[in-house]
Each structure stands twice: as structure tokens, then as C-alpha cells.
Specification:
Elements (H helix, E strand, L loop, with lengths): L11 H33 L4 H50 L2 H7 L1 H24 L3 H16 L5 H44 L1 H6 L3 H26 L2 H25 L5 H43 L16 H5 L8 H12 L11 E8 L9 E8 L4 E6 L5 H7 L8 E6 L2 E2 L5 H6 L1 E4 L8 E2 H5 L8 H10 L3 H6 L7 E2 L8 H14 L4 E5 L7 H14 L4 E5 L3 H4 L4 E6 L2 E6 L1 H7 L1 H11 L1
Parallel strand pairs: 3-10, 3-11, 6-9, 9-10
Antiparallel strand pairs: 1-2, 1-4, 4-5, 7-8, 11-12
């Protein structure tokens, strides 16, 4: 939690003003029993109505001022806690977006969503309680003990006995209940995961009529959370009865011994009532303290999860573009490795003029590339070597799980190779700035992902200043012109979240058009024709060939017909390249390719 306290530096004023006014409220609260004692000992004893009304007015004034001070504290606590949460959430989201695919796979989408929402909210609550109660509670406990000792040192011994007893009860209950809060947090992740899977795959669930199964699955996970909460509730249920039992015994003891002290003239009746008020204040403050322990325990668990995300660093960064002559000491420190602006600038120039330099070099070269996903001992790709020339159409085909998508994910450096090297115009990918490297690519993912907004908004996602002419050009190549212009609002037609109001084929064509708007130098189509009919597939490929002659196109497909006219076809099987060449040649020499073709083209 202390690591996240750095965000409070933006709210220094609120962090100081809030506790200060809460302290003033506590001071007034400690004065009230003394005023009550004077009303009893003087006003009521002497039947002085004026004195009673006067002191009653003082109590009202103290209460009113306490309310004002509490509102000031509450305002500052809300401002600081909400501001704290906003800044943490913004930084956390920005950090998540800086992570590479490997780290996102490791952390998991559901966990990240829970951290961004539930855990940050828990930290907000902790900050609010920090400002509102962490000063007030100990001050009330210590102040009540001190005030009671001022009134009567002998009777105040009861306070010194009660406070440790109540503290022991609180400690015992907290020790038993705190572990359940950590378990509950993990179970909430599971509920979040099931919810996301169910809602994201709602059509699949209904297609297989598995609603009842999913409801049972959710109920089971939800009941686990409820069971943990009930167990915590059972333990916590002893808190108030135990503390109030000790409180009532303390009050009885005060009244018992206080009565003797009143009889011998050592105490007044008003002072005994003040003692009762102070013991009540201590007990209530200790109960609040117990709740604070619960809140800060939850917050500590949440802070740990938030810090885990912040501690997860991207494995793919621009730090590779650095001075090669740094000392070993600098190399050993991640933070001390300074980027060489000269080399970054050179890489940027090479990248911006990539099509005007090194014309005799292959555009992309893979040299004995092997790759294993983080945490896996098995290679997803093994010993892949190929040269891809500028303007070529490359087909990639193979069975399910053969490594097709893995291969193309290495080219824009979504992952780094485990062995071997990938070069772009003769230079290693690591020598190019990531942002500029990825601007070369237009990528259409295997799953067509659209964002809520309009068709134009989605098409301008890769190029914000794209003109309507550029959008229409991309839409026409993607064979989406007919259905887009038939929509009520045309290019301004709304798209629901995930493109739910479009068919699978329409979504694919929009995502292809989105990649084309920027006129990329390298276009990657990862099984992006799967929802298209054969006629549309053929028209789209013909349009690409005619309008994107200088673009290097990599087509991943399960259809042999889609890639049979490619300049080169890569055949993958179980992570290994078992064939490379043109259709006719591979059909004769590659058994895997022949089997695929025979199953589809016979």
C-alpha cells in the first residue's frame, strides 16, 4: 500500500485539511461529556433552568460545529479518494496497454478487469477512511482515557482494563476473518471470468441450449463467494456482541464503584455519567477500528494485485535500440540503459524510407526462427527460414495448431523469437522503434473485432485523418461497398459493441477495409476470409492484386483455393515448415499440402 501512497502527493492539501477538521470534531466530541456533567452537577442539582438551557446551547453549538467540520473532512476525503482512484486507474490502464502479448496472456483479461474496477475501488475506500478515521479513532481512544484519568484516576483503571480486552477480541476476530477476504478476492476473479465468457459467448451458449448449464456454473461460483462471505459474517457477528458485552460490564462496574465514590463525596453524579460516555466512546471507536482493519486488509490485498501489474514489465520495448558500448554495470540495470537518440533517429529514417533503400535485400527474412510461448517448454514454431520480397503475396496454410497465427504474430513483434532472427531490409526487428515498425503493417486479426461507434469511426481507427475518398477506396477493395451504402446512414451507420448488428462476413470485410485505409506496406490477413463466400473471396483477392501492387500480402487461410495463386506458399505442420513454393510444385512434392488440396479441391 505504501508504494501507491505516491499518488497522494497530488492531494496534499486534502490529506492535511481532512484529518485536521476530523480532529477538531473529535475534540468537541470529548468536550460534550464534560458539559453534560456540568448540566447534571450544577443545572439539574440546583434546578437552574437557565444554566441547563445555556449549557444545552453549548452542546448544540458543539454538535453543529462538529457537523460542519465532519462535512469539510468528508468533502476533502471524497476529493482525494476519487482523485487517487482516477489517477491509479489511468496509470494502470496505460501500463496495461504498454504490455506485450506475453504479459497480457500471463495476467489474464478477467483478472485485469477485476483489478481495474474492484481493486481500485477498494483502494479508494481505504484512502477515504485514511483521511476520515485514522486520526480520529486513536485520538478518541487516547483522549477518552486521558479525560477519564483527569476526572478520577482510580475509576479510570477500568478503562485501562477494558481497552486491552476489547482489543484482544478484535484481534482474535480479525485473525480468523482476514484470510477469508483474500480467498474471496480470488473467487471474485472466477465469477468475473465466468460472466465474461458467458456474455461474450452468448450465441454459442444459446446455439447449444446450454443456458441451464451456464446458470448452474455461475451459481456454483457465486455460491462459493457467498459461502466465504457467510463464514466471514459468522466470525464477524461475534464482534459487536462481544465488545458490547465488555462495554456493558464496564458500565456496570463504573456505576457500581462510581456510586460508592459519589456517596463518599469523591465524585459527582455528572462525573459518573461522563465516565459512562467516555467508555461508550472508547468502545465505539474500537469497533470502528475493527472495521478499519478489515478495510485496510482488503486494500492491502488489492494493492498487492495492483502492484503486481505495475511490476510486470513489457518484454518487448524500444530499449533494444541502445548504445552498444554501454558498460556492464549499465547493462545490468534496466533503468540505467539509456536509449541512443542517434540510433533511434537512424532507424526511423530507414523505416520511413524502407521502400527506397536496400532494393536488393529481401523485405522480410526469417533465419532459423523458433518460438515457444512464455511458460511453455515446447516450441510452437521450430527452425523456420524464408525470405519474403517486396510486393509478394505469401500464402500460409496448415492444419489447426500448426503455428500459422504464431508465425505472423512474430513479424510486427507482438512476440520476440526464442531462437533465430527476423530481419527487415537486412536489419533486425529489434533495431526499429516499435511504433514506427507497426505502422508498416495492416493487420486483420483472426477474430473480427469492431468497436462501438460508426463505420467511419472504425475505418479511421488506423488513420484518424483519413478522407472519405480513402475510406471508400478501402471499402470497395474489401467488397463491402454494396452492403455499407445500403445501410440507412451509409458510412455513418452505427455499429454496436463488437459489431453485433453485422453478420460475420460483414464484420470481416469492415476489418479488412480498416487495415487498408492506411495503405500499409505489409498487409497481414489472418484467416480473414473464413466467413466470406467463394465468389466474394475471389473478388477480394483480385481487387487486392490490382490496387495494392506494392503491398506485401501475407494470407493465412485454411482454404487452399484462397492461397493457391500466391507467389510463395508456406506449409506448416506441427510448428515446422514442411513445404515452401508455388501451388503446382507443392502439390507434387509436399504430402501435407497435397492432402489439404485433395480434401478441398477434388
Amino acid at each position: 500500500m505504501l508504494r501507491l501512497a505516491r499518488y497522494l502527493k497530488y492531494f496534499k492539501k486534502e490529506v492535511i485539511i481532512g484529518p485536521f477538521f476530523k480532529l477538531l470534531e473529535a475534540v468537541f466530541e470529548l468536550i460534550v461529556p464534560l458539559v453534560m456533567a456540568s448540566i447534571i452537577d450544577i443545572g439539574i442539582k440546583n434546578k437552574d433552568t437557565g444554566y441547563v438551557l445555556q449549557r444545552g446551547g453549548v452542546i448544540l453549538l458543539l454538535g453543529l460545529l462538529g457537523l460542519v467540520f465532519a462535512l469539510i473532512c468528508q468533502y476533502n476525503a471524497a476529493k482525494a479518494s476519487q482523485g487517487f482512484g482516477t489517477r491509479v486507474r489511468n496509470d494502470l490502464y496505460a501500463h496495461i496497454n504498454s504490455l506485450s502479448h506475453a504479459e497480457l496472456d500471463l495476467l489474464g483479461t478477467n483478472t485485469l478487469i477485476t483489478i481495474l474496477t474492484n481493486d481500485v475501488n477498494q483502494m479508494q475506500l481505504a484512502v477515504a477512511m485514511l483521511i476520515r478515521l485514522t486520526v480520529r479513532v486513536p485520538f478518541l481512544i487516547i483522549g477518552a482515557v486521558v479525560m477519564s484519568m483527569i476526572l478520577d484516576i482510580k475509576l479510570s483503571i477500568i478503562f485501562l482494563i477494558v481497552a486491552p480486552l476489547v482489543s484482544a477480541v478484535i484481534f482474535l476476530i480479525m485473525k480468523l476473518s482476514v484470510p477469508y477476504y483474500r480467498i474471496r478476492q480470488r473467487m471474485l476473479d472466477k465469477v468475473s471470468r465466468i460472466t465474461r465468457e458467458n456474455l461474450g459467448g452468448a450465441r454459442v451458449v444459446r446455439a447449444f441450449s446450454k443456458q441451464e448449464h451456464e446458470i448452474e456454473r455461475f451459481n456454483e461460483a457465486n455460491n462459493e463467494v457467498a459461502d466465504v462471505a457467510i463464514n466471514v459474517g459468522k466470525i464477524s457477528a461475534f464482534l459487536n456482541p462481544a465488545t458490547f458485552a465488555i462495554l456493558n460490564l464496564a458500565i456496570l462496574t463504573i456505576l457500581w464503584f462510581g456510586g460508592y465514590r459519589v456517596n463518599d463525596g469523591s465524585l459527582t453524579q455528572g462525573q459518573v455519567i461522563a465516565f459512562v460516555n467516555y467508555i461508550t466512546q472508547i468502545s465505539l471507536a474500537l469497533v470502528v477500528f475493527a472495521n478499519l482493519v478489515v478495510i485496510f486488509t482488503k486494500a492491502a490485498a488489492s494493492a498487492g494485485r495492483i502492484n503486481k501489474v505495475f511490476d510486470t514489465m513489457a518484454s518487448i520495448t524500444n530499449e533494444d535500440i541502445a548504445d552498444k558500448d554501454v558498460t556492464n554495470k549499465d547493462k545490468s540495470s534496466k533503468d540505467s540503459t539509456d536509449k541512443d537518440p542517434t540510433k533511434i533517429d537512424e532507424a526511423s529514417k530507414d523505416l520511413s524510407n524502407i521502400y527506397n533503400t536496400g532494393l536488393d535485400l529481401p523485405l522480410i527474412s526469417l533465419h532459423h526462427v523458433s518460438f515457444a510461448y512464455p511458460g511453455s517448454d515446447e516450441y510452437a514454431l521450430e527452425d523456420i527460414s524464408i525470405d519474403i520480397k517486396q510486393g509478394e503475396v505469401i500464402g500460409i496454410i496448415g492444419g489447426t495448431g500448426s503455428g500459422k497465427s504464431t508465425l505472423i504474430n512474430l513479424l510486427p513483434r507482438f512476440y520476440d523469437v526464442t531462437k533465430g532472427e527476423i530481419k527487415l531490409k537486412g536489419r533486425a526487428l529489434k533495431e526499429y522503434p516499435l511504433e514506427l515498425l507497426r505502422k508498416l503493417f495492416g493487420i486483420v486479426a483472426q477474430k473480427a473485432v469492431l468497436f462501438s461507434g460508426t463505420i467511419s469511426d472504425n475505418l479511421r481507427y488506423m488513420k484518424e485523418d483519413a478522407s472519405i475518398e480513402e475510406i471508400k477506396w478501402a471499402i470497395e477493395i474489401a467488397q463491402a461497398k454494396d452492403f455499407v451504402e445500403r445501410l440507412p446512414n451509409g458510412y455513418d451507420a452505427p455499429i454496436n459493441q463488437g459489431g453485433r448488428n453485422l453478420s460475420g462476413g460483414q464484420r470481416q470485410r469492415i476489418t479488412i477495409a480498416r487495415a487498408l485505409v492506411r495503405n500499409p506496406k505489409i498487409l497481414i490477413l489472418d484467416d480473414s476470409f473464413s466467413a466470406l463466400d467463394y465468389a466474394t473471396d475471389a473478388k477480394l483477392r483480385a481487387a487486392l492484386k490490382e490496387n495494392c501492387k506494392d503491398t506485401t500480402v501475407l494470407i493465412v487461410s485454411q482454404r487452399a483455393n484462397t492461397i493457391k495463386n500466391a507467389d510463395q506458399i508456406i506449409v506448416l505442420d506441427d510448428g515446422k515448415m514442411v513445404g515452401l513454393g508455388k501451388h503446382d510444385e507443392l502439390y507434387k512434392t509436399c504430402l501435407v499440402y497435397k492432402e489439404i488440396c485433395d480434401s478441398q479441391l477434388s
